């Protein structure tokens, strides 16, 4: 019998993309709430407790409330919000993060879907921390740019809706200037760092796709690693993975630029090591779709693992907004 899956918040950006990825599948039964009853607590409680697996695509406080409504011990949950990414009792839903993580996700009752920026950051830094190439107490900086879809309905309106009071035609802007972005705690926790990284995000005037970059002064690091050391550590960490790829140094050296929309519509993430051994500096870069591996694709991947289905089911096709 196909497992029942309920997406609470399926009308939002992430919820819509997850629904599209699941709608045609025959190995699950996708259930939805009557739109007229969407705000009725009793109707939501019934669906939350009758499903085999629930995906929460809600603001943080609403996600916490939804979890509190689940009384059945048999219901498994994937939370796409920020609410539980560092919470006790929740498994972090980045299966490629460590060798034991895939099995942990598969056996978990509560899984916190990673943020889009942290997915790229953790993918780049955790293998280097684990290998001893990047000290846990190093003052790490991360720069990133994302398409505006990652900001939800308000940011989408800011860039698309000329009737919106906040409508703008700016091609690019930085934000989170107080350095208090909500993704920072999960970045620090799951990368294994002793201190919070300095996170400098930006948004561009395009819908989706992102680049996450970690600059490293190699000559200042205690082990003075070379580019080959960094690339080898990343390659070893993701050897055999379907969705996380590591470019060779030759491939990286041949590039003159990198398009943040290069992996749009996919659940893939590609990692690069740019830089110069002579200068002693490196730029570690992750390319991914903030709505794919950074959100909906990751949720579907986790769902597949938790339900014992093929991990790549529903993730091979290209999905665009």
Beta-strand percent range: 15-25%
The sequence of SSEs as H and E is EHEHEHEEHEHEHEHEEHEHEEH
Cα shape:
globular
Count of runs of 4 or more consecutive helical residues:
10
CATH topological fold name of the largest domain: Dihydrodipicolinate Reductase, domain 2
Mean of all residue-level pLDDT scores: 95
Helix/strand-derived category reads alpha/beta
* CATH second-level architecture of the largest domain: 2-Layer Sandwich
The value of Rg in angstroms is: 20 Å
| CATH homologous superfamily identity of the largest domain | Dihydrodipicolinate Reductase, domain 2
Could you name the CATH class of the largest domain? Answer: Alpha Beta
Number of distinct beta strands: 13
Give the number of domains. 2
| Strand line-up of the largest beta sheet | 8-9-7-10-13-12-11
Topology summary:
Layout (H helix, E strand, L loop, with lengths): L2 E6 L4 H10 L5 E4 L9 H10 L2 E4 L3 H10 L6 E4 L11 E2 L8 H7 L2 E3 L3 H15 L10 E7 L4 H9 L11 E3 L9 H8 L6 E7 L5 E8 L9 H11 L6 E3 L2 H6 L14 E8 L4 E8 L3 H15 L15
Parallel strand pairs: 1-2, 1-3, 3-4, 4-6, 5-6, 7-9, 11-12
Antiparallel strand pairs: 7-10, 8-9, 10-13, 12-13
């Amino acid at each position: 019998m196909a497992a029942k899956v309920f997406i609470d918040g399926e009308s939002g950006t992430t919820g819509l993309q997850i629904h599209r990825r699941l709608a045609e599948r025959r190995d699950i039964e996708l259930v939805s709430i009557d739109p007229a009853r969407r705000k009725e607590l009793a109707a939501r409680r019934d669906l939350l407790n009758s499903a085999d697996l629930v995906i929460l695509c809600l603001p943080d406080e609403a996600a916490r409330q939804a979890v509190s409504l689940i009384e059945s011990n048999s219901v498994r949950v994937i939370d796409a919000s920020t609410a539980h990414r560092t919470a006790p009792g929740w498994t972090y839903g980045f299966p490629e993060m460590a060798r034991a993580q895939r099995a942990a996700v598969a056996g978990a009752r509560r899984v916190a879907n990673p943020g889009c920026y942290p997915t790229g950051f953790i993918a780049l830094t955790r293998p280097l921390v684990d290998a001893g190439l990047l000290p846990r107490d190093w003052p790490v900086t991360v720069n990133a740019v994302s398409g505006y879809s990652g900001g939800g309905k308000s940011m989408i309106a800011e860039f698309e809706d000329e009737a919106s009071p906040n409508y703008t035609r700016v091609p690019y802007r930085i934000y989170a200037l107080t350095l208090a972005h909500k993704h920072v705690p999960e970045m620090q926790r799951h990368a294994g760092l002793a201190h919070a990284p300095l996170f400098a995000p930006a948004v561009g005037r395009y819908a989706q796709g992102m680049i996450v970059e970690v600059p490293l002064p190699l000559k200042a690091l205690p082990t003075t690693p070379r580019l080959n050391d960094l690339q080898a550590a990343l390659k070893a960490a993701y050897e055999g993975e379907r969705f996380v790829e590591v470019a060779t140094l030759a491939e990286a050296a041949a590039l003159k630029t990198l398009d943040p929309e290069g992996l749009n519509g996919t659940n893939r993430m590609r990692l690069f090591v740019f830089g110069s051994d002579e200068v002693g500096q490196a730029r570690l870069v992750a390319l991914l779709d903030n709505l794919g591996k950074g959100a909906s694709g990751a949720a579907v991947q986790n769902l597949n693992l938790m339900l014992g289905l093929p991990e790549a089911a529903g993730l091979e096709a290209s999905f665009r907004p």
